[in-house]
Hints:
7 helices, 7 strands, binds nicotinamide-adenine-dinucleotide, EC 1.3.1.9
Amino acid sequence: MSLSLQGKTFVIMGVANKRSIAWGIAQSLDKAGANIIFTYAGERFEKPVRDLVATLEGKHELVLPCDVTNDEDVERCFATIGETVGKVDGLAHCIAFAKTEELAGNFSDTSREGFLLAHNISAFSLTVVAKAVKPLMTEGGSIVTLTYLGGEKVVPNYNIMGVAKASLDMSVRYLAADLGRYNIRVNAISAGPIRTLSAKGVSDFNSVLKEIEERAPLRRNTTPEEVGDTALFLFSQLSRGITGETIHCDSGFHIL
Ligand code: NAD
């Protein structure tokens, strides 16, 4: 990979384990020589995330807790980042959550609590972290989030997460419109289905993977590494003219 992010600092939010898409992004950025700050959801993720980070080529010392539903946590996290590194060049938001029981069956059975929870963690959190990182992007920046086709079209069992992704997709456009004047770009990668901890929650996920293999233009499933390299492009100067965009990294499945 010839793209270099040497001397640039990125915040990656949402590594849970080695299957996480955020980890694919971390590997691409690490290879490009970036300085990376990691944030994790809660205490139980600290050790696994620190162990993974230790396997990277670069030395990335800042690994911080940040539950995006907790304003104090977010404030504390970005204050620490500001005090330690000063300037941030990019942020990867790789965070979503919905109740497993609402990722199956009838969408019309979605509970009020489940609806609000999915939107709070999976959509509103992008606005929360964009606001928190903005003062640190003193030389402009690039914010990248992860979305899915289920926010554009009805995908069986994706249910409430699809509605939350639609909200996330529109948040990307409103944030891009807001932050463009500061040379901060905001884009989404719509990833094809990948077997991760979160994906396990979606009922009958194996059939979705099988369908991609059989029907997607590239006839294969998306890998976290492919998404990582798409993020690398969005974090690099090569994408400097792109904001408010959703790039599909899904073997072309969305065109069908
Ligand atoms: P993952 O389970 O590895 O990552 C989800 C992350 O969200 C975890 O690290 C989890 O700790 C974090 N999270 C949940 N609640 C949080 C909170 N309150 N505060 C902070 N972090 C919290 O799964 P993944 O598939 O890598 O998911 C990353 C993103 O990619 C999600 O937005 C997901 O919707 C999106 N995505 C996934 C797929 C797929 O098929 N796996 C496809 C398209 C988009």
